[in-house]
Amino acid sequence: MLTRIDHVGIACHDLEEKIAFYEGTFGLIVASREVNEQQGVKEAMLHVADGPAGASYVQLLEPLHPDTPVGKFLAKRGEGVHHIGYGVEDVVAALESIGGKGVRLLDERPRHGSMGASIAFLHPKDVGGVLTELVQARPRQH
Ligand code: V0V
Ligand code: CO
Question: What is the pTM assigned to this prediction?
């Protein structure tokens, strides 16, 4: 069901500062920058590698407000890994299958994610303390 690690989501206070760090330290290149009001974040995807099932990224996340998932996480735990995003072929089918196994779905239906992806989150308490995101990438343009 999981085809790759699509991204590792990292919570930070200052997006521009962390982008500069990842660029300068690891030579990563920013593939996209977006504000996602629904998710309460300003985020950037930094390209790590391409694989047979698609690309993988580091996602840097700065909260738009304190009362958002990333804002609350920063207040409670400070900067660090916030979630893992796994690639799936079909996010609707994956949600149905995973929900059927008793894992709480934070999204019953997919929502809009970075770079045109369809995304859905699983409750961290049902995934061993790991906030888990399913990512169906936008079909590649020709
Ligand atoms: C909270 N908890 C976490 C966590 N956030 N555990 C692991 N990883 C995290 N990131 C724990 C927290 O420590 C509490 O445990 C418990 O869950 C309840 O947390 P809370 O602070 O009371 O917060 P809630 O319940 O209001 O919200 C937590 C959830 C929320 C996970 C439900 O953050 C959520 O719906 N997240 C999904 C959306 C999201 O994260 N969007 C931002 C990324 P204790 O202390 O009680 O034991 S957007 C994105 O990735 C995009 C756009 C993309 O990839 O394209
Ligand atoms: Co994400």
Answer: 0.97
